[in-house]
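Support request from a user on the community tier.

User writes: "When I paste my structure tokens into the form, the page sometimes reloads and wipes my input. The last time it worked, I copied everything first. Here is what I submitted, just in case something in the input itself triggers the reload:"
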């Protein structure tokens, strides 16, 4: 398989056997070698996960975004969010690589909170999921919301997922978005 030159793909493969995990974690340091491992997870039912706790997004289109570590009350004790701005239309984009064409399910995790936005999701410029977006507002810091979108037909190769702070619940005090992780699972 040929991988695009000069492209950055930030991916951690999870849900694979221990031999593959060992290869991934020990000794694969170059981009092409890491992407070659993704060929091993192109089977139906395998998951490709992207951890925004350890990798920054590829493009910050609008807003002030940063990783916050040791955040009390958060599932992973940290998150990647727009705490520096929390404005309408704050947006980030993340590059990802799909090793084999197929139908995928997308999952993301984000905490619910009193200053949360309504987030819209896009892949390669096309909105996915609810057209109205996903309301992450709760009166107090709540559990992580798991947002899932299935039936995504994706080609093999490079793609971009976009998170847009589109609107907010009338009770929300701002347009906050804090992300933990996202993944793609091949379903067909």
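"...and here is what came back when it finally went through:"
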């Amino acid at each position: 398989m040929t991988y695009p030159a000069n492209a950055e793909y930030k991916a951690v493969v999870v849900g694979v056997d221990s031999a593959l995990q060992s290869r991934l974690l020990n000794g694969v340091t170059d981009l092409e070698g890491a992407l070659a491992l993704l060929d091993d997870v192109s089977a139906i039912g395998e998951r490709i996960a992207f951890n925004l706790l350890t990798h920054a997004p590829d493009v910050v289109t609008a807003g002030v975004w940063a990783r916050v570590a040791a955040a009390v009350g958060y599932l992973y004790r940290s998150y990647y969010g727009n705490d520096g701005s929390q404005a309408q239309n704050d947006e980030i984009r993340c590059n990802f690589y799909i090793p084999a064409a197929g139908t995928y399910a997308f999952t993301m995790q984000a905490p619910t909170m009193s200053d949360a936005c309504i987030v819209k999701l896009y892949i390669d410029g096309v909105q996915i999921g609810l057209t109205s977006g996903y309301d992450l507002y709760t009166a107090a810091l709540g559990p992580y919301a798991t947002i899932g979108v299935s039936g995504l037909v994706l080609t093999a190769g490079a793609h971009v997922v976009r998170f847009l702070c589109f609107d907010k619940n009338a009770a929300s005090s701002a347009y906050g978005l804090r992300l933990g992780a996202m993944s793609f699972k091949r379903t067909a």
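Agent notes: The reload is a front-end session timeout and is unrelated to the input. The CA atoms of residues 64 and 84 lie 5 Å apart. The mean pLDDT is 75. Escalated to web team.
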